[in-house]
């Protein structure tokens, strides 16, 4: 038989009730609908479709899963936390779901795969779709792989950097000179930033430092700083702190600077791909978006560091400086020793104690951390014009020695919401030498894993305290490091790992 | 304080209770655990960790999501359907979860990204990890992108094909000649296979045909055949059918031939990447695993077909034949018209009726389908040695004319479990010409989408019945096609789509 004409308005998207699943899928925006839901049939949606969720003017792209049974009722859209937050809905709110629009920029990704260079417009489209969450992991991996197979040229890196800046917030400061610093590829314990900010601002420089939390490391600068003061500042608080103290050490996550970067970094890590072009765009887009015009880059070089050879470090430095210049950003790269951790502590509170020791000039302050921090701070002072060329390190040391850095740091912590006392671990256990000999090798990656199993960075007091450095002569059973944890279980897991991985610290006769 | 030594056996994986979520995430193997679950802390697992689930001797890699609230209880592991099936657990069964092992083969993917060719061992490792579900979509996209940026050379295609064969089941037939047929890139309604199998086997050839279900098309050969006879045969039934009738038209999914192929195809589709090397390995690995030694490949060429130019078709043919030869497989490629659908029906039952009309020699049987099927069947007869070179088409036509093909087809259906009557749609509505003129263009992709919105292939009776072909002169309001659906809703959705997409069938004055 011939059916009746369609009811009018069948084009109108069909509404569902939002339900919070309290499902943590990290970045992944997931919507789960019942297999029998009329909207799925209506829109021709099936499991794994990319869909567009709309509610109260906001929209977000999600992956659709379906469920029968009672996980979700027909007419409901159960949302992962990422979906819930980005839509800003409340339990039971109405939302619509339809097929996600076609991703035109994928054609550019495909062209890049086949060896065609991309122009600014193409990269802007790709970065825009990435930032708005329209690229799946597969799309992102394809783009990142294509820009590794045929490395991004300088113009592409510049255009990519610009595109990454444009999709995010941008901070401006009414100061002629705004300095920043960054370390390429974390090195356990290399927590120089708070010291550098204290020294730089104590000498009148403007240094609005935004830092990240740990992603795969046992501590990010923001995690460490958080044991000393609040770091989760909104933009107005951050401005107030910088206006009164000249600088801050805040968590950058709330600033939405270069949001596409976090997405690229996540997938690069998953496919274990590390390309110079992406690294440069990643670092510079964040610095430029943060409003700095002078930046000092710490590039640790070592067998288990991100950059493994002097040659690679030199090439990276040259390209970083060249691309930065295209944005009027003066960059100075410093190659440093990446063969072993810096300071004694690895983990938020333990690193914070190293920082305090250096700032307070304690006799037992780790000399390597003080040396590296003041050397980098000296360069910051020079590029910022607070010290004559060659006189920066001297000024940095004296700023520490006369207590001005410590005073300034306390003022910054107060301005950020009040100084805190880093917590202490309830469980401490030494990892001892299996034999007598000399420390010949330290595996930064395994050391970081050990600190993470101990609970860092979630457990602020957890981590590793080093007792030796490369070259130290040890007797059999002498402690190499102390494992700090907040629970007996975590101590067990960490010690298990250490037992299974004798190569964390290598001893030769 | 210094804590006590760890309890012994802390290395032992910690057990959880399996819970079925009835969550359909297609291929995705998902485990959801409570945020406070002790096992997560114990193993250092967090949301989005790749984990290894083990139960009753089976293991599968999964992605871990976490949930607070009551979605899942601490001590439970709630599983997606893919996880549930692959582990073969029952409600409440004990399972263990731990970090997924390191993916060594990713180093080879990385090498390939940077332009190094891969040898057989490397490709075997990549394909092995893919088939065992250890590659994430990002890993897969990286590998596929790398083999597009620097196209696979012939040796790599051969090694990839071999690796894809080796990870799956392999069928053998005790016949000197086993023929097969495949169409590169679907064309709506191009359902020649059942006719070809009937003609080939009626002439004494062995043709154990395994076909796929639709993935993105309105019907796969298995979906269409299923409206005429059971296709979900286990391997022993399939063997019995082939031994008694010389051939079959079965669903290949149950045979586990080249399982990695389905995974690659899914991601290629997601990133819309189509590389010759992957296509060749995909097609040939399945044919070789199915035990055939002669194959005829139908390559439709047209502006909205998979292969768009004669030149591309020729290159593809040459490479297909060359690689096939490396496996002792004799391939013959036939380039066919891909500019418009074949036959009248698009959708399982509608295509089945076309097939029946051709086999039964009905006067209204679609001539294009008969012509194409007999032409391809003729080539199959020739390569299989059942007809002299040049005499195949003639023999195919006579096998149809004298009813032997129809008789054989009914016998095959009986052997597969009994012949069925294809269902008819309850709702039919014409899509009419907006103007008088000549049919100048038909968009195969939009036509397929229209048939899918009508409900195909899930709704077996649903789809599109063509009333015109390229060149047909139509009057205004004359029907161009009929939309067939099983529900009024689906008719509405399909007609809405047709209204929004006037370009499905283009008419010029």
What's the arrangement of secondary structure elements?
The structure is a homodimer of 509-residue chains.
Chain A: E1 15-24, E2 30-34, H1 38-43, E3 50-55, E4 58-67, E5 76-80, H2 81-87, E6 94-99, H3 106-113, H4 120-131, H5 137-149, H6 154-166, E7 179-183, H7 193-202, E8 207-211, H8 221-226, H9 235-245, E9 247-251, H10 259-270, H11 276-289, E10 294-301, H12 310-326, E11 330-337, E12 345-346, H13 348-360, H14 367-383, H15 392-401, H16 404-416, E13 427-432, E14 437-442, H17 444-453, E15 463-466, E16 473-474, E17 479-485, H18 488-500, E18 505-508
Parallel strand pairs in A: 1-5, 2-4, 7-10, 8-9, 10-11
Antiparallel strand pairs in A: 1-6, 2-5, 3-4, 3-6, 12-15, 13-17, 14-16, 14-18, 15-17
Helix pairs in contact in A: 3-5, 4-6, 4-10, 5-10, 6-11, 6-12, 7-14, 7-16, 9-16, 10-11, 14-15, 17-18
């Amino acid at each position: 038989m011939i059916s009746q004409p369609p009811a009018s308005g069948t084009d109108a998207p069909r509404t569902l009730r939002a339900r919070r699943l309290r499902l943590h899928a990290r970045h992944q925006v997931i919507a789960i609908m019942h297999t029998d839901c009329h909207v799925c049939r209506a829109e021709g949606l099936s499991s794994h479709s990319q869909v567009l969720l709309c509610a109260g003017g906001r929209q977000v792209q999600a992956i659709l899963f379906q469920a029968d049974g009672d996980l979700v009722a027909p007419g409901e859209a159960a949302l992962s936390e990422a979906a819930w937050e980005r839509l800003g809905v409340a339990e039971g709110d109405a939302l619509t779901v339809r097929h996600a629009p076609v991703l035109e920029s994928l054609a550019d990704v495909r062209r890049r795969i086949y060896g065609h260079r991309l122009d600014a417009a193409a990269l802007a489209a790709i970065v825009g779709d990435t930032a708005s969450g329209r690229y799946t992991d597969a799309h992102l991996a394809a783009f990142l792989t294509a820009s590794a197979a045929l490395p991004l040229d300088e113009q592409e890196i510049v255009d990519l950097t610009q595109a990454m800046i444009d999709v995010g917030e941008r901070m401006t400061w009414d100061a002629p000179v705004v300095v920043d610093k960054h370390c390429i590829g974390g090195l356990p314990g290399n927590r120089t930033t708070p010291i550098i900010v204290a020294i730089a601002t104590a000498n009148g420089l403007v240094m609005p430092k935004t830092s990240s939390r740990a992603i795969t490391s046992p501590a990010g600068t923001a995690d460490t700083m958080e044991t000393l003061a609040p770091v989760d500042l909104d933009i107005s608080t951050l401005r107030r702190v910088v206006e009164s103290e000249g600088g801050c050490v805040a968590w950058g996550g709330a600033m939405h600077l270069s949001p596409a970067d976090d997405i690229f970094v996540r997938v690069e890590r998953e496919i274990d791909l590390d390309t110079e072009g992406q690294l440069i765009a990643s670092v510079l887009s964040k610095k430029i978006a943060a409003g700095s015009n002078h930046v000092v880059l710490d590039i640790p070089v070592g067998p288990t560091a991100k950059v493994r050879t002097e040659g690679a470090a030199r090439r990276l430095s040259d390209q970083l400086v060249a691309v930065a210049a295209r944005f009027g950003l003066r960059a100075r790269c410093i190659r440093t020793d990446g063969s072993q951790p810096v300071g004694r502590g690895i983990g938020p509170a333990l690193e914070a104690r190293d920082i305090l020791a250096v700032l307070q000039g304690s006799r037992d302050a780790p000399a390597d951390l003080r040396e590296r921090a003041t050397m980098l701070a000296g360069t910051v002072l020079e590029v910022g014009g607070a010290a004559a060329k060659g006189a920066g390190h001297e000024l940095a040391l004296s700023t520490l020695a006369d207590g001005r850095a410590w005073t300034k740091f306390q003022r910054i912590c107060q301005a950020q919401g009040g100084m805190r006392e880093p917590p202490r671990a309830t469980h401490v256990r030494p990892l001892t030498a299996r034999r007598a000999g000399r420390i010949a090798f330290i595996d930064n990656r395994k050391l970081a894993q050990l600190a993470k199993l101990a609970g860092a960075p979630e457990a602020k007091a957890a981590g590793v305290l080093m007792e030796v450095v490369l070259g130290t002569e040890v007797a059999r059973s002498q402690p190499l490091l102390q494992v700090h944890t907040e629970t007996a279980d975590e101590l067990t897991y960490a010690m298990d790992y250490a037992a299974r991985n004798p190569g964390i610290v290598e001893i030769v006769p």
